[in-house]
Every structure is written in structure tokens, then in C-alpha cells.
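#lab-general

N.A. 3:47 PM
ok so I finally got the sequence cleaned up, no stray characters, all 62 residues accounted for. can someone with queue access submit it? mine expired

B.Y. 3:52 PM
send it over

N.A. 3:53 PM
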Amino acid sequence: MSTGLIIALANIFNSAFQGSMRWIMAGCGLLIFMYNLKVTFNQKQNEAANQNTVGIGSRKRR
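B.Y. 4:20 PM
back already:
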């Protein structure tokens, strides 16, 4: 997940790319980082929802 953030920060503070290419690379790095955060957050929500439904199902069987 930190790969996108590293790409973004490296391109902001590193002068390997000049002008607009530097900001395009930084923007892409931030997009990768945000996408990874979204995927991680959705996985955690799904795990929590699955745990809730397992508990409800086991209560109904009693």
C-alpha cells in the first residue's frame, strides 16, 4: 500500500522529472495510494460484515 505514497513523495521531492511530468508522476502515485486504501477499507468492511452474519446465523440455529 505504501508503494503509491512512496512514488508520490519521491516525485515531489526528487528532481529527476522536470515540469509537468513530475506532477503527473506524483498524481499517479497518490491515485495508487488512494486505490489501495479503498481496497483495504472494503476488505475490512467485508470481514466485519461476515463476522456479524456468522454470529446471527449461529444464534438462529439455537
